[in-house]
Each structure stands twice: as structure tokens, then as C-alpha cells.
Design goal:
homotetramer
Chain lengths: 363, 363, 363, 363
């Protein structure tokens, strides 16, 4: 019997999840989709051949006729949706970042534990095939002792409006994409190394004008107690399509990996064509034509892993605790940018959303 | 109910097929594996969790308790195995090249037709995701009218001994890999353009010494009646790992795609590591670390397509007729190399194996 | 005392020569420039600070107050200009190709010899630093025994009108650029290996419509008596800027080198910029921004070598004999495309211009 | 008449200078070379055809029969050598970094000014052709408003022993190479933007064991008052050869440029060859074969500019003041690493050498 998944959300990332389930996770079936707006819900269900759609979130999360909720909602809804779903017996797959506050994180983890439900934190970089090759070689010892990591994720800004509203997103480019870098560092280094400080620089007002008060660009330098240093760079102001790349230096070697340009065909087209790459803009002239973006970023592998965890009752490699640890690092980064100083971990402060630590509280 | 596949052969390519079925073709189950040698058959079955193994080819092909035979045998056995399997009711998936002679090809096609069995010709380049993006853009008109194609497949020589024996393989680098380029040209250009001539240059004695009389290097220039010209380059004497790349030029643009280097992470390792790339040799110093080789070459997509064709009784995109058309081009190429002259198509000559057209008949 | 050079021609290539002399050949001074049209001659002289200009070719070539003539004229004027200049005592630097016919070539060589003047054939690829590194490694034995060479030079068509007129140019993309590949093969392989055959495929009518009857695209396969095979590919129909690249395969290794993309910075610019690359077209979106094009192609090194040859009375590495040998290969290639068959060398036929061997004589 | 240059130093960088003068700066002649050790001085003079050599530094700097001293000595000797040379009437070309302390810097600038001698600070990245293309496009507006710069220079450690001794070098990877990044940022952004803070992270003990107490790896984040942020990354622990690359992001585009891998031919050699790249180590297997390293890094262009400044009595684009500004940033970076905190500029503290600000004063 297949594992029944209800997809909560019908935006950009939900679309990637739906494609990933359909093509690569035969043990799962999507039994329904929720969107706030009827035309989105209905259109999404039609496109992906999903039998049921809903615009009622409460009802959706309370139903008991499916096994796993897959939450692809705006960040500020992550906590309540997770808690409600777990309380009514569902395992939870939750898109990054985990939620807006550490208090929410603690409660989400506690509720899922209390109901014996899995909280599966969807960090696809831990499943991206090329990055997993990097990790494998590092673990084989091919690179010696790792002392430096760099991860960049940059594009020209998100598709959906809610990202630009800091009350819904909790922050900008760092909140949106820095969570990837922080999670990947922890995944690469394993439990033996803990992050001990973050220094961050942020900037807004680059290309989005009044549309957002969120940071459009951020640089974060993370120190780990084993001595490794990591740099995470994120941007909503980088033109020319998505960039997702890593560098690793160890005492025995180096690796470079690039998920977009580094997996693409190279094209020159006088008149252009339909689609080149996430956020690529125009397609005439030279372009880097991407191939199997979802697969190369690790989405199908991630969802397959999660469904298998549910089916075999095993623990996922990326949990609520991982999401919480990343959120703590995001806090520290915003705080660092606000103070203009390095911030040490562990770090906890009472805020409504992470970006307040940079911009100040909004009262 | 799953489609039951019997894997006939337990070498390099059978291993790729087995991995591809397991990870990406949930509708299929491998019910058995044949190898001439017991330790190979048993080891392969153990490795891939296949319930049954056999060293009796006749018995294997005559059984009626499975649906599809997947033939990964040396080239000279393709025809008889196909004919026997189809005669006893199985659909046939057959690794390239189709067989050694046009007479065999005609009989294979006829027998499969007579028994209403599908003859599915396994040309994975027609499914390789990056090359399919190239084809898609070409069909969108992004490149204007295509006037030039190039496909290279080069490495340092096959794993298995039988390739080097021209009686088993029928030819060397061209027979082994030129079939890919010829098939891909036909796939790119569609039925509208027919190949009208082949000019080929071949050479042996480069790095394999007395191990083989087969050509180690070949260049083939193919003209199509629509005016497009294609170059296929193949080598068993190219060091540094597998190369598989294409170039396309049209009146409106160009594309370049590379399946190995172009999908890899870049590594420098002082001490080396386990595996970099098909035929890569040593892994210390700089290497191009490949990722998901089977997927990037199109094997899982190909096998999924074939299994779906069987399940829905539809025609595969690569058939026995395609394999035959490619074989005719291989004939023409060997003949061209033998004559030192361009050879026009259609071309048919009575030979025991294609390479005789270059080396002369062996009596 | 500086060596006095008179530049005959004021087009695209003359501009590169002038820049090269000024920046990199201090032993030379350009004493004058000739162009058929006064505004060109005058403008060129102004731009490059050349003291004298002329529109009288005869007078220019007959003067005796300079040492070296540097001929950058349309192909059909090469022979007469060379002969006149040498006859009046000048050493000759001559842009490729040498001339239109073998009869001209023989006479040019004889006249220069009779007057004891150097005939220096300007094949810049023999001086391009990256290609010279390739040659150096090959000669060091780093690649083992070389069995395969490929050289591509492709762009979207020449700047000047005369190239499109086969009476002035003698041929199209092959005449214009195939001479580079043929010369580079000979340079790589040295005197030990002689070309023994050429097979060529040509096509016209791709993107230039009625502007030209010349071939817009050509592929040439050359066999050498040592067993090496070379492919030269040329195009006037390749969009996206200049391409100049080589591949070398030997029994001990391989090399890839690219003079344009492979030396460039990678740029994404929303609004575009002034200049990206020879024939690059628009510069918005992604572009490959070239750097020091003349230097990377070997022009300054070539001219410096020639001037030193004059000053020290030594033989240049690329002579009239080399240009003649290349012209013979061009003949063979056109003839091969015309016959649809491989043509063996040595080859000589009486024609007015090489392209007649493909298109047939124009009477 | 040529400008007479005396080369003071005969190590790795002096060799690059000598080659650069000889090939690309015809207006200069090297009249002598100094090295502490006779065999070095004599060997260098022989190799480069220099008429005179000396092992007496005082005598060398006091002579009056040449015009320009080109100082390629260990860092701790820069100040005294400069002062002595300028005092006895020579213009000074001085390799980076300017000197060890701000006090020295002030005195060097003052003395040169007092004697009306030019202090020409040899920052070759301001002349590297590819980086100059980046700067040109940025200034054209092709990239919009620049908000991010990154410059990396990394290798496996210097050739000469003195670099490892912090009393001679004043610091490690940052002192050695971070000066390039800091200088290049200032050059890119121009006088309009001033650096206002530096945050740095450093690490030692990676691959050089007890050989050095200097930092082997450093990351520096620099804020400019116009809002641009820059990252400089340096390493003496990066295997696989030299890395020198930049990234630039602006509101209208991005650029990527790479001086070593990005200008190289790609080679696979089974047996290896003589030389691939600065610090490349072994050359068998895959290597990036560099081409014209000195030219691509800007050395000849830099020296030509300096000699022209002397000959025409104009100001160089990189002066003692620039070297001093960079030194101040180096101070701030070491101080930041020591404090674990961002340090604001202007910054001045009394120390014996920059690295003391990180390691603490050595008493």
C-alpha cells in the first residue's frame, strides 16, 4: 500500500515536490493539495493529477485519511501547520526554514515527539547527488582534514510575494537560502564539530527598491569548534539565473561543485527559447541550459528518503532538531549583522522573527 | 503486478541496468540473471538481491515465467538470443549494437513481429537528460535549422575481453560506440532526414598492442539528405576517463553538452579516492568526479520507457528498425575505411561481421 | 636603428598588426600605411600615429625607403603585391592564405629567392601561446605518440565584403580559416609527417543568403603518412562569437585548448557593454569577455619573430613554402568536396582559384 | 637611451621581473642584480644575461650609475632598502607588501618625496589583463552598481624560507597575498569608496607543521563606505596549484574571472611533463597547463608602466600611499583575527610587525 501524502501549498516548491513524487517516489501517492486560493488548488490538482483539492487549511490538517503532510507554506505558517498536523496524527515533511522562532521550534519538536510523529526537515542539499559525492570523498579522506567550506546560493529574488514581506518570511536572502548553507556545513562536518560563532554582513536596497525591507545580500562566516571555517553567501540581487555552488578545502585536497552552471548544456540562441534555468530571465544569446534541476538539487532523493523513513519507521537524516540548529545560526547571523560583531553560539534571544535581530524590533 | 524481467548477462552494462531498475523503475522486478559462469551469476544475484540465477542460456531464454528479457550479452550472441526469447513469448530489450549482420537484423525484426513481441533497442543517448534538452531546444527552433552535429564517445578501452575479439564484437571502437553517435543523429534529425553517405577513417595498434585487431580509433563523417553533416568520433585509446559530448550548430544558434566532465565535481586529492569516472584510472591529483553516471547517460529513463511500453502496449522510440538502420551505417563506415572513399547509403553487402568490410574477409 | 615596416592594407587584420607592432615589437616602426580609399588610409594613420599614408599601391610597393612590407590585402592581390615588393628589395610579411593558385605560389617563392628577400608567411597559430604550450608538451612526450588532431575556427562571417566575393577571396570559410588548421597540423607534426590525403565536406547557403557563393561551412579530414589523422572544422555560420580550439590525442594523453572562451572572463550584463569578442554580436545577458585577443592568438609573437628574422638574417619558421603546402591542401579539400571523394596528395591542377575545384570552373 | 634598472633580489619574483623586462619592456635594461649569496647572484646574472652582479647590498643601493632600483627582497628589508636607494637618487619599484609597519611606510613615503623620487608599489593585479577587463566593464556600467567583490589567492605555500619566518615576512598567507585582494578592491572601487572595517579569521597549523607560526589560511571581510562588501581569501594550504580568481556582483550583472585555471589548457598525461603551473606539484594525470603566467598576472604591464612613469615623469597608478593603505587594512585584519571582532578603519597601532596584532607581541 502506498504512503498517502497531502501537499499543503501549491507554489513553486510544491510543484517541485509533486514532480519529484510522481517521477521518483513510487511508494508515495499524493492524495490531495491545499492552496488558499481555489484556482491555484484546482489548477495544481489538475496539472499533477491529484484527486482532491482544498482551500480549508484547518480541515486539511485535521483529516485523518492520509499519512504524511508535506508543508510548502510561507515560513510564518510552518509552526502552526506542523503542530496541527502532528496533533492529528500525521508525519510532517516541512520545507525550510523550520519556522520563525526558537520557541516555535521547541514546541514543534515537542509536539511531534509527544504524538510520536516524525518531523522531517526538508534540506535538499543533504541529498543533492553532486554534493553527496563531495561529502563521500571528504569522508573517504580524499581531502584530508577539512578546514574550509563555502556554499553560495544566489539568484535575483523569489517568485512569491510573501518572501518579500518580513512578517511572513522572517527575513530575506539569508533566511531563504542561508539555511541551506548552514545545514550543509553541519551535514558535511557531522556531529563532531559544532558551530561556535557567526559573523554576518547584510545589505538591502539593491535591486528590489521598496518592495522589501529584507536583506537582499548576505555574507556569513561561521566558525566550528574543530577549527573549520565556513562562508555562506546569499543573494536576491544576483542576475543571470540561479547559482548554487560549494568549495571544500582540506589538508589533502580541494573540491569544487556547481549544481546549476556545472550541470548545464551551453547554448547560444539568437531568438531564445522557453526555459533555461530557475530565475534565468531572457534566453537569447548565451545561456546555461539546466537539466533535471529537481533531481540535481536532491528533491526526489530527499522525499524518497522521507517516505522510506515513514514506511520503515526509521529516523530521517534531517530532523526538526537540525532545523532548529540552523535557525539558531540564522538568529546569530542576523544579530551579528545588527551589532556589527561576531556572535557566539549557543545563542537565544526572544524575538518575533529573526530579521528583528538585524533591523531592531518593530515597535 | 510488476513486469518480470530476466537479465541475460552479468557484466558491466548488466550492472548498470540492474541499478537502474532497482532505483528508478518500480514497475519492474528482476526475477533472474544469467551468466555463463556460475560465480558471476551467483555474485550478481547476491549483489542485486535477484532471486534466481542460471548458467544455462537455452533454458533461460525458453522459460515462460517472465515477461521481458534484457539482453546484455556479447554482440555475436544478440541475434540468436533475441530470436529464441521472442519465439518463446518474451519482449526483448537489447543492448547496442543490434547484432553483427543485416541478415540477422532482418530475421530478428521478422521473428519479433511474427510473435508480436516488442524488440526494444537500448540506445540510451536518446534518453540522456542533457542530450534530450539539446533535442528539445532544437525542436523548439532555438537553434534555427540544424546543419552540423558532432558526437564523441571515447575512452581507453572496454572492460570485457570479448570486445577485443572481433569475432565476438564484430568491430572495435566504432562498433562499440559509433552506434551511439549514428543513432543520436537519426534521433536528433527525425525521419525527415535520411543518411546518404558515410566517410570513415580508422586506425588500430595505438595502445592495445596485440590484444586486438579491432580499430582503436575512428572518425566518421555522415551526410544527410536534408544537408546536415555529422561527425562521430570514437576511441579506445583516449586516456583520462570517459568522454561523451555533443555539439550542435544551426543557423540560429549552437549548443554544447558534455555528459561526464560536464556533470562532474572537480577534485584535487593528494592521496586519491575510490572511484572518479568510468575508465578514469588513478584518482590522485586532479580528477573529474562524476555524479549519477547511469542517470546522466539515460539508462534508467530508457528502461522505464521500455517497461512502460510493455505495460501499455505502445511502441518504443528506439526499435529493431532503428538498430538495423544504425548497423547499415556501421557497415558503410567500415566499408569506407576499407576503400578509403565515401560510401553511399543504402548499403548492403554480405559479410560475417562489419569489421570485415574494413580488414577484408578472413579467409 | 629600427626596422621600417610599411603596412599595406587598413582593414581588420591590419589593425591587429598595427597594435601588435606598437605594443610588442619595439624593434619595428611602421613608416606608412596604404589603403585603396583615402579616408581609410588617413584614418588608420591617424589612429595608429603612422607618419605617412598612401592610396597608390604601385608607388607604395616600389618605394625603397623601408625594409619590410606587411601585406594585409585581399587574397587575390597577394601574389602581385609580394612579387612587386620583393622585386624592389623589400622583405615580405604576408597574411594568410599565401595566394590563390599554386602557380602564383611558385612564382612568389622564386622571385623572393631571386632577390634574396624573405617571404614570411603569417600563420599566427604557430605563435599562439596556448597552442605553443600544447606543442611543447607534445614534443616533451607528455602525450605519447600523437594520433589525432582537431582544430576548429568558426564565426559568423568576415567583416570585409571582399571575403564574400570568390573572385577576390578564392573561397569561403575553408580558404579563410582552414588554412590555419592545415598549417597548425604541419607545425605540430613537424617535417617527419606529410599529409597524404584530404576528405572534405562543404556547404553554402546557411546564413548569408545571396551575399556569397562561397562555402559557409566545411569539414576536412586529413591523413598524414605517420598515421595521424586531423580534422579541421570551419564556419562562417556559427553564431555567438569566435571559436578557436584544438584537441590533441596521443597514446600517452590528451590536451584541450581554447583561445577565446578558454581565455575569457564570464559576464552577465543586463544592459550590455562595448565589446565582448570578435564577432560576438550583442553583449547583454551572458557573454564570454575576451582578454588580449591579439596576444592570445599569437600576432605580436609572430611579428616579433619576423622582424627578428630580418634583423638577424635568419629563416622564419613559417615561410612561403609552408604557405604553398597549405594551399595545396586547400586545393585538395575543395577538390574532395567537389568530387565527394578523398583526394590524395601531392595534388596539383590548373585553376583560377581554389573554390573552382568545388564549384567547377566558371565558364 | 634606456632606463637602467638594478634588480635587488634573485628569487622567484625577481625571476619573473627579469623575464618581464626582457620580453616586454624594451625601454629598460637590467644593469645589475644583487643577491646575498654569490652563487645566486652569479647564476641569475648568467641566466638573464645581466652584465653585473653583487652581494653587497649597501654598495648596490648607494651606487649612482643606474636610474631605478627594483626591490625583490624579503619584506623586512623593504623599508631600509627603499630609503637608502631613494636617498641616493634612485626611483624605487618595490614588490608587495610595502613594508612591515606603518611607521616604516610613512618614512619611506616621506624620504622618496624629499628626494623627489618615485615610490612605485608593485601591485600586479592592477595590471592583470583579465582583471583589467573586469574593471573596464564595471566602469562602463555593464554591471550596474557594484555591491560585492571577492578575490582569492591560494596555493600550497611560498618557495622561499623567509616567508615562513614571521620576523622576516611580518605575517603569513594574508601578508603574502591578502595585500593583493585589498589593493584590487581599492583599485576597482576607486577613490570614491573608502574601506571602513575589516573582519578576519585566521588559522595556522594546517599543512606546514612546525615550519611556521604564520597563518596558513585567512578570510577577510571588508566593508566600504559606499556599501560594497569584499571578501579576500588566502591560503598557503591549498593543494593543486595556484588559484587567483575574482567575482564581482553589481545591480546590473556579474563577472567571474580566473587567472590560472581560467587561462590554461587542459591536459591528461600518463607520464607527466615539466611544468604545469605555479605550485602545481606533480604533472601526471589531469592538470591545468598554464600559459604566459607572468603576462596574465600583469607583471610586464606593471613594469612597463613604471618605466614609462620614470621616463615621462608621471605618477604611477600604484604608489607608496596605496601600499600604505593596504598595510593599514592588513593591520586591521590581523587585529580582527586576534580580537575575534570587526575592526574599524582608520586603524593604527604601534607594533613590530602586522602578525603581532593576531598572535600578540612576542615578549
Amino acid at each position: 500500500m502506498k504512503t498517502r501524502v497531502f501537499l499543503v501549498g501549491a507554489g513553486f516548491i510544491a510543484d517541485i515536490h509533486a514532480e519529484s513524487y510522481r517521477r521518483f517516489v513510487p511508494e508515495a501517492e499524493i492524495v490531495g493539495v491545499y492552496s488558499r486560493r481555489e484556482e491555484h488548488a484546482r489548477g495544481f490538482a489538475d496539472k499533477h493529477g491529484i484527486p482532491r483539492w482544498s482551500t480549508d487549511l484547518d480541515e486539511t490538517l485535521s483529516r485523518e485519511d492520509y499519512d504524511v503532510v508535506d508543508i510548502c507554506l510561507p515560513n510564518h505558517l510552518h509552526a502552526t501547520a506542523t503542530i496541527r498536523a502532528a496533533s492529528s496524527g500525521k508525519h510532517v515533511i516541512l520545507e525550510k526554514p523550520l519556522c520563525l522562532t526558537l520557541e516555535e521550534a521547541d514546541e514543534m519538536i515537542a509536539v511531534c515527539k509527544a504524538h510520536n510523529r516524525k518531523l522531517m526537515y526538508a534540506e535538499e542539499l543533504c541529498f543533492a547527488p553532486k554534493y553527496e559525492r563531495v561529502r563521500q570523498l571528504a569522508h573517504e579522506g580524499a581531502l584530508g582534514s577539512i578546514y574550509y567550506l563555502r556554499q553560495c546560493e544566489k539568484h535575483s529574488g523569489p517568485h512569491s510575494d510573501w518572501f518579500y514581506d518580513l512578517d511572513q518570511s522572517g527575513g530575506g536572502a539569508l533566511m531563504d537560502m542561508g539555511c541551506h548553507g548552514f545545514a550543509w556545513f553541519r551535514w558535511m562536518l557531522g556531529r563532531e564539530q559544532k558551530p561556535i560563532s557567526v559573523f554576518a554582513h547584510m545589505r538591502t536596497g539593491l535591486i528590489h527598491g521598496n518592495r522589501t525591507r529584507c536583506e537582499e545580500h548576505s555574507i556569513s562566516v561561521v566558525e566550528f569548534d574543530g577549527g573549520t571555517v565556513g562562508i555562506v553567501e546569499n543573494s536576491w540581487a544576483k542576475l543571470g539565473g540561479m547559482e548554487d555552488r560549494v568549495e571544500v578545502c582540506g589538508t589533502g585536497g580541494v573540491m569544487y561543485a556547481d549544481l546549476f552552471m556545472g550541470n548545464s548544456a551551453l547554448t547560444y540562441s539568437e531568438k531564445g527559447y522557453g526555459y533555461a534555468m530557475e530565475k534565468a530571465g531572457a534566453t537569447h544569446g548565451w545561456t546555461f541550459t539546466t537539466v533535471e534541476e529537481a533531481f540535481n538539487q536532491g528533491y526526489p532523493q530527499e522525499l524518497l528518503h522521507f517516505i522510506n523513513c515513514v514506511r520503515t519507521d526509521t529516523s530521517p537524516v534531517t530532523t526538526g532538531e537540525d532545523g532548529r540548529a540552523v535557525l539558531e545560526m540564522l538568529y546569530a547571523a542576523y544579530c551579528s549583522a545588527g551589532r556589527g560583531a561576531k556572535v557566539t553560539l549557543p545563542f537565544r534571544q526572544k524575538v518575533t522573527k529573526p530579521i528583528d535581530l538585524w533591523l531592531g524590533s518593530p515597535e
